[in-house]
């Protein structure tokens, strides 16, 4: 939050930095008090030790460039689908159960899926994900489980090598 404050203010004056620090700490304190205990029993408890952060932050810093590369590759795939004369789009809705146990990991997975062109996380609750896939290739990407594995590695959680997808059949509607 402090970095966002500094980026938006664009001023590196001591007064702005102090106000930004106070605002960041205040926002985090208020949100922690508001939402503490609201998800008890649904997720594994989030570790808050310095040791956990020291291990997770570097893994996340490796994950971000990998995700950026996946986003670029997916962009080219979507461009191919759109520019192809027959537009080989095969939209599907799939559902799967994630092996991730913490809320942080599940939110990161949901956002990573949505950031990758050709897929959109429609719902993510209690480890159950509903995802719209634009083509067979994007569906296979979800099914391969590499994204879930990478997120699990960042947060040191269990993963599987293959994700079991369940197709959601629309009732009387055409997906195209």
What class, by secondary structure content?
alpha+beta
Q: How many DSSP E strands? A: 4
Whole-number radius of gyration?
19 Å
| Secondary-structure element string | HHHEHEEHHE
Q: Which blocks of ≥5 consecutive residues have pLDDT under 50?
A: none
Mean pLDDT, all residues: 85
Give the overall form.
Answer: globular
> β content, as a range?
5-15%
Distance between the termini: 41 Å
What is the percent of helical residues? 40-55%
What is the makeup of the main sheet? 4 strands, antiparallel
Q: Which strands sit side by side, in order, in the main sheet? A: 2-3-1-4
Q: In terms of quaternary structure, what is this?
A: single chain
Number of helices in the DSSP assignment = 6
Note down, in words, how this protein is organized.
- This protein has 176 residues and is α+β, with helices and mostly antiparallel strands.
- 54% of the residues lie in helices and 12% in strands.
- The chain is built from 6 helices and 4 strands.
- It has helices at residues 2-9, 14-35, 50-83, 103-115, 136-144, 146-154; strands at residues 92-97, 119-125, 128-133, 166-167.
- The longest helix has 34 residues, at 50-83.
- The chain starts with a helix and ends in a 9-residue tail after the last strand.
- The mean pLDDT is 85.
Which key terms come to mind for this protein?
alpha+beta, 12% strand, 176 residues, single chain, 4-stranded antiparallel sheet, 6 helices
Brief digest:
This protein has 176 residues and is of the alpha+beta class. Helices cover 54% and strands 12% of the residues.
């Amino acid at each position: 939050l402090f970095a966002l404050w500094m980026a938006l203010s664009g001023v590196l004056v001591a007064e702005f930095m102090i106000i930004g620090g106070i605002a960041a700490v205040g926002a985090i304190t208020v949100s922690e008090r508001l939402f503490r205990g609201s998800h008890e029993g649904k997720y594994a408890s989030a570790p808050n030790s310095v040791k956990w952060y020291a291990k997770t932050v570097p893994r996340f810093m490796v994950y971000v460039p990998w995700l950026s590369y996946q986003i670029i590759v997916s962009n080219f795939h979507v461009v191919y689908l759109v520019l192809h004369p027959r537009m080989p789009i095969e939209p599907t809705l799939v559902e799967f159960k994630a092996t991730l146990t913490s809320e942080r990991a599940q939110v990161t997975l949901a956002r990573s899926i949505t950031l990758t062109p050709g897929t959109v996380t429609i719902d993510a609750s209690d480890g159950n994900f509903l995802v719209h896939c634009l083509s067979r290739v994007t569906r296979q990407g979800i099914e391969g489980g590499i994204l879930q594995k990478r997120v699990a590695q960042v947060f040191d959680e269990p993963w599987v090598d293959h994700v079991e997808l369940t197709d959601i059949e629309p009732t009387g509607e055409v997906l195209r």
